[in-house]
Automatic annotation (TrEMBL):
Gene3D superfamilies: Bira Bifunctional Protein, Domain 2 (3.30.930.10)
InterPro entries found in the cross-reference section: aa-tRNA-synth_II/BPL/LPL, Biotin_CoA_COase_ligase, BPL_C, BPL_LPL_catalytic
Organism for this UniProt entry: Pseudoroseomonas ludipueritiae
Catalytic activities: biotin + L-lysyl-[protein] + ATP = N(6)-biotinyl-L-lysyl-[protein] + AMP + diphosphate + H(+)
NCBIfam families assigned: birA_ligase
Molecular function per GO: biotin--[biotin carboxyl-carrier protein] ligase activity
BPL/LPL catalytic domain mapped to chain residues: 8-183
Keyword entries, A-Z: Biotin, Ligase
Matching SUPFAM superfamilies: Class II aaRS and biotin synthetases (SSF55681)
Superkingdom, natural source: Bacteria
Keyword Heme: no
Record flagged with keyword Ligase: yes
Annotated protein name in UniProt: biotin--[biotin carboxyl-carrier protein] ligase
Length: 241
């Protein structure tokens, strides 16, 4: 189906992973604005090589964009997905809900993870972004148990949980909105929804862990970590805690 906002949205009862379908389409030259949604996934993938629990009722969506521009801007596209997701989530929650982004773009509700994004990009031979795939998982109805953190859903007491296709359509429209506003506005919006400056952070990169404080985002959208030896830009890794 084609959505009101002009995305080509394919809806499946079950897929192994929407991400694998859209990655294959990206590699095969499919034009941008392809969206693939599955009602459930049998082999959903998260960041850091983890599995992503994918029961019916939650959102499993992968989106293909071809924004062009230099490869170093890839982290900014990841931030854009996070900001758009935070806005789409806010739209189904009561005003004042405690939504925050955790770098790179976990979405926390009341401090518990309610959504995550697996952002993957391909660079062409000229060093430009060939494609970006946002794999978005949102706990709309079910909060799967995670070993290392609290989880939450967007469902509100006494109300039906948000419906996945309607939520996906709102999210695609929000992504278009932020794309139109530009990457500088995205960075500012991420900062407004992210941690406070100077928040202590513990970053894991492979087998090493690094302590520091949040010092903002740089021009390319990388996390700035203030450490005793200076401010370090970070483009990969995971924040613990
Ligand atoms: C995370 O670990 O926080 C990111 C989770 C991303 C899950 C989504 S669900 C849709 C898409 N398909 C997948 O297999 N993974 C992503």
């Amino acid at each position: 189906m084609t959505t009101a906002a002009g995305w080509r949205l394919a809806i499946h009862e079950e897929l192994a992973s929407t991400q694998d379908v859209v990655l294959a389409a990206a590699e095969a030259g499919e034009p941008e604005r392809l969206a693939v949604l599955a009602r459930r996934q049998s082999a959903g993938r998260g960041t850091q090589g983890r599995a992503w629990s994918s029961p019916s009722g939650n959102l499993f969506l992968s989106l293909l964009l071809r924004p062009g521009g230099p490869a170093r801007a890839l982290p900014q596209w990841s931030l854009l997905a996070g900001v758009a997701l935070a806005d789409a989530a806010a739209a189904v929650l009561p005003p004042g809900a405690e939504l925050r982004l955790k770098w790179p773009n976990d979405l926390l509700l009341g401090g518990a993870k309610c959504a995550g994004i697996l952002c993957q990009g391909g660079v062409d031979t000229a060093g430009n972004i060939g494609w970006v795939v946002f794999g978005i998982g949102v706990n709309l109805a079910v909060a799967p148990a995670l070993p290392d953190r609290l989880t939450a859903t967007l469902a509100q007491p006494g109300a039906l949980p948000p419906e996945p296709v309607a939520f996906a359509q709102s999210l695609m429209a929000t992504i278009d909105l932020w794309r139109g506003r530009g990457l500088e506005a995205v960075r500012d919006a991420w900062l407004a929804r992210g941690p406070m400056l100077d928040t202590p952070l513990l970053l894991r990169q492979g087998d090493t862990a690094r302590e520091g404080c949040f010092a903002g985002l740089d021009q390319d959208g990388r996390l700035l970590l203030a450490t005793p030896s200076g401010v370090v830009p970070v483009s990969a890794g995971e924040l613990l805690g």
